[in-house]
Amino acid sequence: MASNTQDVDLEAERMTEPTETESGLDENVAGALSYLFGFVSGLIFFLIEGENQFVRFHAAQSIVVSGLVVLASIVLSIGGTILTTVMFASTSTVIIGSIISLLLGLVWLGLTLGGFAVWVYLIVTTYRGKTTRLPVVAGIADKLV
């Protein structure tokens, strides 16, 4: 009876070992750590690593992602404050102001939870040695590298 399995070339399937970086860490560890504290750790690894493109890309992407999340949070907070102040200034728009406040709170919650999920995903995939390129953000990070 014939088998449907194929021979596996273990040499071809063997993963390459991560190379060491200027910081003394393996590149997958340095890349993952560049996401740990957002743009602060991203900036540190971006400045430390002069030649390792894997770490520099992830550090640049960390700077851009965390910067965009912080910027969106600030814009949402300021916009929400202005809108709710205007809506609660008059007694006739209190209900509309309450609905807008609720919706903005839900958008802020979605931004926070989504940002956290992306942050964890980027740390895990980078630690595994993979390069995850986020739309728009990766293009900006490429220009920084």
Q: What's the topology here?
A:
Blueprint: H1 10-13, H2 27-33, H3 39-48, H4 53-88, H5 94-127, H6 137-144
Helix pairs in contact: 2-4, 2-5, 3-4, 4-5, 4-6
Describe this structure in words.
Mean pLDDT is 85; it is low at 7-14. The chain has helices at 10-13, 27-33, 39-48, 53-88, 94-127, 137-144. The chain starts with 9 loop residues before the first helix and ends with a helix. The radius of gyration is 22 Å and the shape is elongated. It is an all-alpha fold and 145 residues long. The longest helix is centred in the middle third of the chain and has 36 residues, at 53-88. It is 68% helix and 0% strand. The chain is built from six helices and no strands.
Task: Quickly list its features.
145 residues; mainly alpha; elongated
Share of helix among residues? 55-70%
Q: Into which percentage range does the β-strand content fall?
A: under 5%
Number of helical regions = 6
Instruction: Give the overall shape, derived from the CA principal axes.
Output: elongated
Termini gap: 56 Å
What structural class should be given to the helix and strand makeup?
Answer: mainly alpha
Give the biggest beta sheet.
none
Number of strands: 0
Low-confidence sequence ranges: 7-14
User: Could you report the average pLDDT, rounded to the nearest whole number?
Assistant: 85
Q: Roughly how many Å is the radius of gyration?
A: 22 Å
Oligomer: single chain
**H/E element string?**
HHHHHH
Brief overview, please?
Helix 2 (27-33) runs antiparallel to helix 5 (94-127) and helix 4 runs antiparallel to helix 5.
